[in-house]
Write a structure and sequence with these properties.
Layout: E1 3-5, H1 14-20, E2 41-46, H2 61-67, E3 75-77, E4 83-85, E5 88-93, E6 99-104, H3 118-132, H4 134-140, E7 143-150, E8 153-158, H5 179-182, E9 202-208, E10 212-217, E11 231-236, H6 240-249, H7 265-269, E12 274-277, E13 287-292, H8 302-311, H9 314-321, E14 327-328, H10 351-360, E15 372-377, H11 383-398, E16 401-406, H12 410-418, E17 424-429, H13 435-438, H14 440-443, H15 463-473, H16 478-495, E18 498-503, E19 508-511, E20 514-515, E21 532-533
Parallel strand pairs: 2-11, 15-16, 15-17
Antiparallel strand pairs: 1-5, 3-4, 5-6, 6-8, 7-8, 9-10, 10-11, 12-19, 13-17, 13-18, 14-18, 20-21
Length: 536
């Protein structure tokens, strides 16, 4: 029997459709109680300004937030990371986990009026993204063939099972690109890149560099009656204090990710005009850590790295530097994602235990009380990370380790970490719903690649871990995958290739008049076709 997973798109009834075309609107779907009105403009902060809006060519965070309203993927994900329909209305997986068949919606159009078909999916996944998108290339290179069975049916046949294959179809991982515009061209130099064309609910209107990006409602959108908003302005506000003031004064109606410094969060939470949520980041599941260059002494000794874990109070970091946002991390897999293993070695805050490990490793205190010296390259992502650097310096000094703080700009930080020119640094990475997509890359030996950021820049190598990650990715049974990932996590937590800090939570502030901003695990990167403004 086929192992079927079918998910059908909710459709508006004829009565609801008629209502959807009127203003104000009222949806009649069960569970939707509030009236949804058409019209209104939403101003959203975007920081930093994205380099381009073609999501197939660039997947930086700000690009995803803006372009997620222009482009779409085949699937999106619920808060508990279950796949949900988007451009694919249903899908099937063969019993051996090697054949995935997607049925597409039949009324989607590109913004220039051309129909969206299976041929666009084949082009996007077998040509465009294979050339431009590192994560998509890693996933779709596992396909033996990608075929359009008809105009609205696409079939992916894998060379071997790949457990997280469905997770690869959300909009930032596999944005659908228009074949009729890009086929046979230099994708990166195509003139159409200046005026992105997707299937999403909002169309590109204008980009005033350094000031704003303006999207307007797609009146030919394939979901009847949507979107509700007239337009969205993404406001570029480089200064953190100015971003907080913009929220207080109501000149912007939404912030996300790192827009607001953590020390401003308690004050903004008290504003009467906004609501704050930390939901909507489950798919990304950001995890922060101290990056450790395990090539350098004394960091090549795991006892020294274990001592670091005991010397640093992660609860203090969460409470006093991140102002309660997030959870102290216990290992390499975020507890909100699949395959997290809680039964790993524990590293409670214990400076005496840290000193004992340093003694055992041979790092005796000198006349000045110093056992060792290391450099810490502070991540240049705002004052919160600077404060974290000051804390780590003080915490390590308590156990006899002298930390020299180093600073650089964003480009310099990427250059130094990716080229292994550091002792310690900070970092946080996204996990993309499955360890095979967002965790493995950091710890396996074949991803030690000089000059490549977000790879195994620590230089950690353990053949047993390599084998466990490889086996887990090639298995499509969750129980077997859990056993393999649990074994890998226990080894990694023992070895401490990085010093895990927090399972991060980002605060999203939304003006109370705007509803449905965060409805899925990709949060503010969603299409916003359901967002509406309550008018009073």
């Amino acid at each position: 029997m086929s192992n079927r997973l079918r998910h059908f798109r909710q459709t508006l009834t004829a009565a609801a459709l008629a209502a959807a075309l009127a203003a104000p609107l009222a949806l009649t779907m069960p569970g939707v109680a509030a009236a949804q009105e058409r019209g209104g403009t939403m101003n959203i902060i975007v920081q930093p300004e994205p380099p381009i809006l073609v999501l197939g060519l660039n997947q930086q965070g700000p690009t995803q937030t803006v372009a997620g309203k222009i482009y779409q993927g085949l699937l999106t994900f619920s808060f508990d990371l279950k796949p949900q329909p988007e451009l694919a209305e249903s899908w099937e997986v063969s019993p051996d986990g090697k054949v995935y068949t997607f049925k597409l919606v039949k009324n989607a159009k590109w913004h220039d009026g051309k129909p969206f078909t299976a041929h666009d999916v084949v082009f996007s996944t077998s040509k465009f993204l294979m050339e431009t998108h590192p994560r998509a290339r890693a996933t779709f290179s596992k396909c033996e063939k990608i075929e359009a069975l008809d105009d609205y049916t696409v079939q992916f046949t894998l060379k071997e099972p790949f457990g997280p294959f469905l997770q690869a179809f959300e909009v930032s991982s596999a944005p659908m690109m228009p074949k009729h515009i890009y086929e046979g061209t230099d994708f990166k130099a195509n003139p159409a890149n200046a005026t992105p064309i997707g299937t999403g609910p909002f169309k590109f209107k204008e980009w005033n560099k350094g000031s704003y990006i303006h999207l307007v409602r797609n009146d030919e959108y394939w979901k009847a009656g949507k979107p509700y908003l007239d337009d969205i302005y993404f406001r570029v506000i480089p200064d953190a204090a100015s971003r907080a003031v913009a929220v207080e004064q109501g000149t912007v109606q939404q912030t996300q990710f790192n827009d607001i410094e953590t020390f401003d969060v308690p004050r903004l939470k008290g504003l009467p005009n906004v609501e704050m949520t930390t939901k909507g980041y489950e798919f990304f599941a950001p995890l922060s850590w101290i990056e450790i260059n395990t090539r350098n002494k004394p960091l090549d000794d795991k006892r020294f790295r274990q001592a670091m874990m005991h010397a640093i109070d992660r609860k203090f970091i969460r409470d006093k530097i991140w102002f309660g946002l997030g959870r102290p991390a216990t290992g390499p897999v975020n507890s909100v994602t699949r395959f997290h293993e809680p039964n790993v070695r524990k590293y409670d805050y214990d400076p005496k235990r840290a000193e004992a490990l340093l003694e055992e490793a041979g790092y005796k205190k000198g006349a000045d009380g110093t056992r060792a010296k290391v450099r810490l390259l502070v991540m240049p992502y705002g004052e919160t990370w600077t404060r974290l650097g000051e804390y780590v310096k003080q915490a390590m000094k308590r156990v006899g380790v002298d930390v020299t703080l180093e600073t650089t700009d964003a480009a310099g930080w990427v250059n130094r970490v990716s080229n292994w020119d550091y002792d310690l640094s900070f970092n946080f990475v996204y996990q993309y719903g499955d360890p095979a997509l967002g965790v493995t890359r950091t710890y396996v030996s074949d991803n030690i690649r000089k000059g490549v950021m977000f790879s195994n820049t620590m230089g950690y190598s353990n053949p047993e871990v390599d084998q466990l990650f490889a086996q887990a990715a090639q298995t499509n049974k969750d129980e077997e995958r859990q056993q393999l990932y649990s074994a890998a996590q226990k080894i990694l937590v023992e070895d401490v290739p990085v010093a895990w800090l927090l399972e991060m939570e980002f605060p999203t502030f939304v003006d109370k008049r705007f509803k449905n901003a965060v409805t899925t695990a990709i949060g503010v990167n969603e299409s916003y076709d359901s967002v509406y403004m309550v008018k009073k």
